[in-house]
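A student in our group prepared the protein record below, which I am reviewing. What it holds is a sequence and that sequence's fold in token form. My question to you is simply how this chain folds and whether the tokens agree. Do not assume that whoever made the record got everything right. I have pasted the whole thing underneath without changing anything:
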Amino acid sequence: MTSLYPDIKANLHYSIPVSDIHTLYVEECGSHDGIPVVFLHGGPGAGIERYHRRFFDPLKYRMILFDQRGSGKSTPHACLEDNSTQALVDDIEKIREKLDIDQWIVFGGSWGSTLALIYAQTHPARVKALVIRGIFLCRKKEIDWFYQEGASRIYPDYWQDFVAPIPKNKRNDMVAAYYEILTGNNDIARMSAAKAWSVWEGRTATLAARSEVVEHFSHLHTALSVAMIECHYFVNQAFLDDDQILKNIDKIRNIPAFIVQGRYDMICPMESAYELHRAWPEADFTVIKDAGHAASEPGIISALVSIMDMLAIEKN
């Protein structure tokens, strides 16, 4: 089984203003003369992590990683204003232009897969290849599965902690109820709700619960941006038309693409990945038989690193 590359430091990091409000944290790693690849993190709101650099051979790839609006080290933190899918797509282009990159591989998982697909459909000429995992098409039925009814039946014990901040008479629409608290004026209630929202995601991200994943999602800085930005996007249907990605597959049909999906993904169930595969049979489709959702699952790591190693050989 292929493992992650050794830990490396960023070569460079930038602060890039992308609007009157938002400034993005961007870092470069690996070889400046290598194959450009942009990493799109999940959430939205989760931010980049140090291990995200390790999916790529540092001698062969020029890695571009950045925190999306309101996430990680980007400022202002957890800001919902001027924060939409279309704005994030524009940000990716601004980064590409600033770094003088003509084409790059786009690599993303979970929400990062959504953003990768929308970016590719908007700017297909700029995408050398797509590598996506934990497919999330951002449709109502997917959001309902995780935040209303579905995953709740698999994890009824964790679900009780998730619903705890919400009054019983408002639990018929959990996303709307959370949004009311997260955008309200009660700081204590907001922090408590943010942690409950984020921990629910951390507990269900892996096939077997892992304390380090839950701890990451429990950290208040991460929890606040994950909860507020995810909820903001989901009450707005991710600023997308229903089935927008599947309806626009022809725009990216000829881009080399690789889809990796955990069989037992409880956050982004395999149904969506399979629908994408059916609509786009030209894309390589790999199901990891013993994995859940997280990019840190061993089988998912092995598949993603192997794909990137293969692409590095092909591009050379």
Summary: DSSP finds twelve helices and eight strands in the chain. The mean pLDDT is 97. The longest strand covers residues 23-30. Strands lie at 12-17, 23-30, 35-40, 61-66, 104-109, 127-133, 257-262, 284-288.
